């Protein structure tokens, strides 16, 4: 298991938040963007999907029921235990690890990277580390399924992920941005703050196939 480095992390004790059920970021249901992407045919059986900061989200189970190979990471042992129990009770297969998703690397890069409330939960100072990790965790041509939190107030988490900042963070030399405008989905338990749904494709670099 990778040593979890809390340097420059938010002061939140994520394990305590899950134990106390103090988790306002949880929707309690599948994200509307998940349904849109499923209808668009992005979730083909056999694809390998990575969910960093998976928490107690229902998406891992939904992916597994669609026939995808699921890997979820979180720094909270309680959240990972919850996912493992949910999968066991449902008779589903999935891999859940207590790991630092910014430091962890898979043996084989993934086809899909499902970003929900992980990027907005980390310090903005760690965003370049996030982008590098996502780039290395995805195969060339793999898809980053992004939900960028829109928030005008300073501080966090959640930290605002403006489209301008995200365009700079995920440059066109490394990521193919969709031509269509991102779809805005208001978060029901975070004051209606919008999350912008966008699918970014990881570009192949020199020497990659």
Automatic annotation (TrEMBL):
<keyword id="KW-0597">Phosphoprotein</keyword>
<protein>
    <submittedName>
        <fullName>Methyltransferase domain-containing protein</fullName>
    </submittedName>
</protein>
<keyword id="KW-0949">S-adenosyl-L-methionine</keyword>
<dbReference type="Pfam" id="PF05724">
    <property type="entry name" value="TPMT"/>
</dbReference>
<dbReference type="GO" id="GO:0032259">
    <property type="term" value="P:methylation"/>
</dbReference>
<dbReference type="InterPro" id="IPR029063">
    <property type="entry name" value="SAM-dependent_MTases_sf"/>
</dbReference>
<keyword id="KW-0808">Transferase</keyword>
<dbReference type="InterPro" id="IPR008854">
    <property type="entry name" value="TPMT"/>
</dbReference>
<keyword id="KW-0489">Methyltransferase</keyword>
<dbReference type="GO" id="GO:0008757">
    <property type="term" value="F:S-adenosylmethionine-dependent methyltransferase activity"/>
</dbReference>
């Amino acid at each position: 298991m990778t040593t979890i480095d809390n340097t420059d992390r938010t002061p939140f004790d994520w394990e305590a938040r899950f134990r106390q059920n103090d988790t306002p970021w949880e929707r309690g249901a599948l994200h509307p963007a998940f349904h849109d992407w499923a209808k668009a045919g992005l979730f083909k059986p056999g694809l390998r999907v990575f969910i960093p900061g998976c928490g107690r989200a229902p998406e891992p189970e939904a992916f597994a029921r669609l026939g995808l190979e699921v890997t979820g990471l979180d720094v909270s042992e309680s959240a990972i235990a919850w996912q493992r129990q949910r999968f066991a009770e449902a008779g589903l297969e999935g891999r859940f690890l207590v790991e630092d998703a910014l430091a962890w690397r898979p043996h084989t890069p993934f086809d899909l990277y499902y970003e929900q409330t992980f990027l907005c939960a980390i310090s903005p100072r760690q965003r370049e580390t996030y982008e590098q990790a996502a780039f290395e965790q995805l195969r060339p041509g793999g898809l980053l399924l992004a939900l960028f939190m829109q928030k005008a107030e300073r501080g966090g988490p959640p930290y605002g992920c403006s489209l301008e900042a995200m365009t700079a963070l995920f440059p066109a030399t490394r990521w193919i941005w969709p031509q269509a405008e991102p779809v805005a989905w208001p978060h029901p338990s975070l004051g209606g703050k919008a999350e912008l749904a966008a699918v970014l494709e990881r570009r192949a670099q020199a020497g990659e196939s």
